[in-house]
Specification:
heterotrimer; A alpha/beta; B alpha/beta; C alpha/beta; A: alpha/beta; Rossmann fold; Alpha-Beta Plaits; 11 helices; globular; B: alpha/beta; abc type-2 transporter like fold; four-stranded mixed beta sheet; 7% strand; elongated
């Protein structure tokens, strides 16, 4: 098992003055898998990634990548890595093909450009100036530039932030395709469904440390056999809602949304219906669902991810 | 090597495709060369300049028995016709219409002169003809003078008055010759000797062209370098490079190569324009001139890096460049002679690398005499390169802060 | 009213903090006159130039001395040999030289002083003519009396340059208010955010106009003051004309800025185009050098540029150039007319969501 870890990080520390951006992080990412760093803004995701991408040097800690132990990322390592920055730009007056050719020239053994262009579905945009591309096309170009050396290890920093659902699905399918071809992908995101849909392993960060990690299934199963009940209750006073606290394991109000956590779904549902008749309220948008990563994060930190 | 070459190509392609940079690095220097060559290349050249001049003859009656007033009128009439076909005549002459009140006409023309619509108004006063006749008989008495009105607020008017004066002294000479009081055979010969150049006066365009080429390089370095580096850094375009194996020195090599290629393009355009549109004769194909051009391009590029290193944001960099642009360009002798400056501005001239490069290039082309010792002419630009390299290597940030 | 006051405050802060706006409003005109004041004071002023002379020994020099004595305020420096004279011309110790050997006058010029030699040659020609007549004992039959018709005492071209620069700073302030500031607000979606509030868009435009007017006005006063105090320039400013003109020209050029903003789709390109147009106009509008020096077709272009008329109106308002009163007001009110015509368009442009 240990043999197949492509990237191993131990005790990574990075402080900015008094701010402990990364405060002793250790994890390993296995070959041919999608490894996701999850956490709210300021949790240390970006700094961790920037260290692994070679943009910053850690204060201490060790990185083992491609079976080599390093203090920081070297140019030899970069030859085998692909990086999609969260908000990197391109020269607006360069054509798509020119961008690809330029990035290909930085690597010792690049893939033929046409191959990469078709992989990211930009073949018919090859002659277009970057400034004329749509947001989704620009992001696919960025992915293409990150794949031009056929990297074994790929960093995708919030690859779908700000994209429309269609463009997001395009990126997802590229990621799945890469995993299918044996690549190792380090992903950050704050879209829950994205982490759940793509990840083989999720690592939850908060305040520069890892507070939980495992497969998405494992993490949600830590909740045991619990089920989540959710409904909207904007017109209700908190006094009326307090009565519900006793009939479930955990209970929280988040804006207008009430979430109840229960191990005994039938019993809780019964008390809920009884309560609704008693209070004469309709349970609008009533949802019964399994716990997700958001619930995991919330239960661990008491905060929501996207705050 | 391929990456360096492609980075250079990126720099050139971006500069040419973006209309703003294209304007500043190519169109504007070309525009300025054309305007300055058209304006100052023609000052004082007959057939190239035209003045609106009014002529009032108050001596048309009986008091002009020999016709001296008419003679003056004839000469000016002649000068109001094109001397060479399809060229502008020296004067556009305004005369009173038939039946127009001469006093009213004069009044009107003087107002026009004050308002800048006439360059000069010439009045032949009554009694002028007989006065000239009397002068020829006895040169001791005071004659009736011709009056040339001009406007001291207008440079053109001063020039026109000067030219009118020359025309009149030509007429005067003619009259004296006819009266036998001046022997043209015994006239003194006046020779003109041109020093410091060839056998003739240096062409204005030959003087202008090297200045414009260096101005192009200067603007290119001053605005282009901080613009490209800082904008690319702040838009995180550079960061995309830093996550690949490409290194800062290689990027720098590509950038510099691209920048010098742009300077090369500027040079070719300006040179061809100066040569074939304005007849420049200077030849840059000599080691001293070429070395100065390269030294200039490198110095200004380094200067751009200095600004990029000292400015925190792209906008601050552009503002700094804007503020430095004008004093450095004008306090260098690039456009105007810099004699007669007060000491504190002279000091700027002496630390300004543009001064040394412009003078150096012109000296190497034989269109200016050396104003600095050769050691300074090379040493000061090299000093700026060294200073810029030192500051940039310590202070220039290649990536955005956190 | 409260909104307008708040907008006025924020607009003035923005203008004073925006480095580019600050540069073009305050620093540029000041820098310009400081640099040019010293440069231009010296150009083409022949009366302050120096001529070196060398007369061969034993040659009669009475007529030459008479001629030089009559020549006026030019400095005359004697030299011991033709070689010393030539060296002095090349080293620019004197501006040009004259050698007299009893038979021919030889004038020496530095071939490379291409911008000044024309004036020196004019002087030389005058000297030759005068010398010739004196030598043959002839008095000129025609005498010429030059009369300066200017009502205002001009100390040279630079006195006309300064109002031109004031006109330019008014132009750039108006152009950039729309094509730089307003378009940038659009680009950064600041405008969209304001438009969804109950704030009337006119309030924003009024705030921009008022702030530009006041700050632009102050800047012209500073520039004018420096010209008077540092360079001893003399202006007879008609404050009514000066003030009304700056007000009308500022709003008028904002109208031109609107046209640019409408023609160019991308906001950042609008500011760049405005910048380019301003620079080209600066060189063609007779600000740096007289329009009369230009060839006919450039003169025609020049007369079509608003900046040319702005500069002339400014010169009239500062009392250094004459102009028909009606022409001045025609120019002034043309700018006002443009503003009135284009402000509704500008208001619509400001609130219309940007095309993407």
């Amino acid at each position: 098992m240990a043999k197949s870890a492509l990237l191993r990080v131990s005790d990574l520390v990075k402080h900015y003055g008094d701010v402990r951006a990364v405060d002793g992080i250790s994890f390993e990412a296995r070959t041919s898998s999608v490894f996701t760093l999850l956490g709210p803004n300021g949790a240390g995701k970006t700094t961790t990634l920037e260290i692994l991408e070679g943009i910053r040097e850690p204060d201490s800690g060790e990185i083992e990548v491609f079976d080599v132990r390093l203090k920081r990322i070297t140019r030899a390592v970069k030859q085998r890595m692909g990086v999609l920055l969260q908000d990197g730009g391109f020269e607006p007056y360069l054509k798509v093909r020119e961008v690809m050719r330029l990035f290909a020239s930085f690597f010792e053994s690049p893939v033929p450009i046409d191959e990469v262009l078709s992989q990211v579905a930009l073949t018919d945009k090859a002659g277009a100036l970057v400034r004329t591309l749509s947001g989704g096309q620009k992001q696919r170009l960025a992915v293409g530039a990150a794949l031009v050396n056929d990297p074994e290890l790929i960093f995708l920093d919030e690859p779908t932030t700000g994209l429309d659902p269609q463009a997001r699905r395009n990126i997802w399918s590229i990621v799945s395709d890469l995993k299918g071809r044996g690549k190792t992908i380090i992903l950050t995101t704050h879209y829950m469904e994205e982490a759940e849909a793509l990840s083989d392993w999720v690592c939850i960060l908060d305040h520069g440390t890892i507070i939980a990690q495992g497969t998405p299934r494992e993490l949600t199963q830590d909740f045991g056999e619990e089920t989540m009940i959710e409904f909207r209750a904007d017109e209700l006073g908190s006094g009326a809602l307090e009565a519900l606290r006793s009939c479930c394991k955990d209970f929280r109000i988040d804006g207008a949304t009430v979430t109840m956590e229960t191990e005994d779904l039938p019993a809780t549902m019964e008390s809920l219906f009884a309560w609704s008749r008693e209070q004469d309220v309709s349970l609008r948008n009533l949802i019964v669902r399994q716990p997700n990563l958001e619930d995991v994060f919330l239960s661990l930190t008491g905060r929501r991810l996207r705050e | 090597m391929n990456d360096v070459f492609l980075l250079a190509r990126t720099y050139v392609a971006t500069a040419i495709r973006e209309r703003v940079t294209l304007f500043w690095f190519l169109i504007f220097p070309v525009f300025l060369l054309v305007v300055l060559a058209l304006i100052f290349g023609r000052v004082g050249q007959e057939g190239e300049i035209n003045f609106d001049v009014a002529l009032v003859n108050q001596d048309a009656g009986s008091s002009d028995p020999v016709g001296f007033a008419a003679m003056v009128v004839d000469v000016f009439d002649g000068l109001a016709k094109p001397q060479v076909e399809r060229q502008e005549p020296l004067f556009t002459l305004h005369r009173a219409d038939q039946g127009e009140d001469p006093a009213e006409f004069l009044d009107h023309e003087l107002t026009s002169l004050r308002r800048g619509r006439r360059a000069a108004v010439i009045v032949i006063p009554e009694g002028f003809g007989s006065s000239v006749f009397g002068q020829m008989a006895s040169s001791e008495s005071e004659g009736t003078p011709l009056i040339v009105y001009m406007s001291g607020t207008s440079v053109a008017s001063e020039m026109a008055a000067e030219i009118v004066g020359q025309v009149l002294s030509g007429i005067d000479r003619e009259i004296l010759v006819r009266a036998g009081r001046f022997d043209p055979a015994d006239a003194v010969t006046a020779e003109t000797v041109w020093l410091g150049g060839g056998d003739d006066e240096t062409l204005y365009v030959d003087f202008l062209l090297p200045g414009m080429i260096l101005m192009g390089f200067f603007v290119n370095g001053l605005f282009g370098v901080p613009g490209a580096i800082l904008f690319n850094r702040d838009r995180r375009i550079l960061r995309r490079y830093w996550v690949t194996p490409v290194s800062v020195p290689r990027y720098l090599a590509g950038f510099s190569l691209g920048h010098l290629a742009l300077c090369g393009i500027q040079f070719v355009f300006l040179f061809l324009l100066g040569r074939y549109a304005f007849g420049a004769t200077v030849s840059f194909a000599q080691p001293a001139a070429l070395l100065t051009l390269i030294l200039g391009a490198v110095t200004f590029m380094a200067f751009g890096f200095l600004i990029a290193a000292l400015a925190r944001t792209a906008n601050a960099g552009m503002a700094t460049a804007n503020i430095l642009n004008m004093p450095m360009m004008f306090l260098s002798g690039m456009f105007f002679p810099i004699t007669g400056l007060p000491a504190f501005l002279k000091a700027i001239v002496y630390v300004n690398p543009v001064s040394y490069l412009v003078n150096g290039l012109r000296v190497s082309l034989g269109v200016e005499s050396a104003a600095f010792s050769p050691a300074l002419a090379i040493g000061v630009p090299l000093g700026w390169i060294a200073l810029s390299a030192l500051v940039a290597s310590r202070k220039l940030k290649w990536d955005v802060e956190r | 009213m409260k909104a307008l006051r708040a907008l006025l405050m924020s607009e003035s802060r923005i203008l004073l903090r925006d480095r580019m706006a600050f540069f073009f409003t305050f620093a540029f005109p000041l820098l310009f006159i400081l640099v040019f004041g010293f440069l231009m004071g010296d150009i083409g002023n022949v009366s302050e130039s120096a001529m070196g002379i060398f007369v061969e020994s034993g040659v009669d020099r009475t007529h030459l001395d008479e001629t030089l004595a009559a020549a006026g305020s030019m400095a005359i420096e004697p030299f011991e040999s033709a070689e010393a004279l030539e060296a002095a011309v090349v080293d620019r110790e004197v501006d040009f030289g004259l050698a007299w050997n009893g038979e021919a006058l030889r004038f020496f010029y530095d071939a490379n002083r291409v911008q000044e030699n024309f004036a020196f040659q004019q002087v030389a020609q005058g000297l030759t003519t005068d010398f010739d007549l004196r030598r043959q004992g002839a008095m000129p039959s025609i005498t010429v009396e030059p009369v300066d018709v200017g009502d205002v005492a001009s100390t040279g071209w630079f006195q006309l340059v300064l109002p031109g620069i004031l006109a330019f700073s008014v132009l750039s302030s108006g152009l950039f208010a729309v094509s730089g500031h307003l378009t940038a607000m659009k680009e950064r979606k600041v405008l969209d955010r304001m438009v969804v509030t109950p704030m009337p868009p006119v309030a924003l435009l009024i705030a921009i106009v008022i702030v530009r007017l006041i700050i632009g006005y102050i800047s012209t006063l500073i520039t004018l003051g420096v010209g008077v105090l540092v360079f001893g320039l003399k202006y007879d400013v008609s404050w009514l004309r000066f003030t009304v003109f700056i007000a009308c020209a500022t709003v008028g050029t904002m109208g031109f800025g609107t046209i640019i903003a409408l023609v160019v789709r991308r906001p950042s390109s609008a500011s760049n185009l405005a910048n380019a147009i301003a620079m080209v106009m600066l060189f063609l509008a007779g600000i740096y050098f007289p329009i009369e020096f230009m060839p006919a077709f450039l003169r025609a272009i020049s007369r079509g540029l608003p900046l040319t008329h702005m500069a002339n109106a400014m010169r009239y308002a500062t009392g250094v150039m004459d102009m028909a009163e009606i022409e001045f007001w025609a120019i002034t009110f043309s700018f006002l007319g443009i503003a009135i015509l284009l402000f509704p368009v500008l208001a619509r442009y400001a609130v219309r969501p940007s095309r993407q």
